[in-house]
Design a protein that fits this description.
155 residues; 4 helices; 6 strands; 22% strand; globular
Amino acid sequence: MLKSAELKDKPIATDYLGVDLVAVTGTFYTDPNDARFRLSLNTAENMREQDIPYIVVDSSPEEHAEWVAKEHKERGATVVHAEVGGIATQRIQGAVYAANHGAEKVLSSEPEKTLMPFFSEEISRGLDSYDVLVIGRTLKRLRIVCLQYNNVLNA
């Protein structure tokens, strides 16, 4: 189990208290010229432009982690070192970090999804009624599928 994935009874900080939505993602990069890395920076810029706090949980190798963090931080992201690599565990770590810092609504998305910040209002409203939303796309329109009504889950 992730040490940092322990959800506290009460937030340990209030960084995100009262914020409509906090976004989290997981990253792993070894090449600053990688197209996926450039897209992740665009996502960070878009999150900042939309005033959405953005937590990047990075599992890049040690020799690359510094520039990955620097570039994301320059675009307003909070960068946390991943305890365990892998997108699922990184997203869990990011969501728990956000919740422990006062977030009530968390969006977990791929770092290359540059337009997600522009759907933040719809996502936040959806999370008023549902715990889990899956955002999909058809050929004609974006769909938000509600999977689970509000529940209190004790882990």
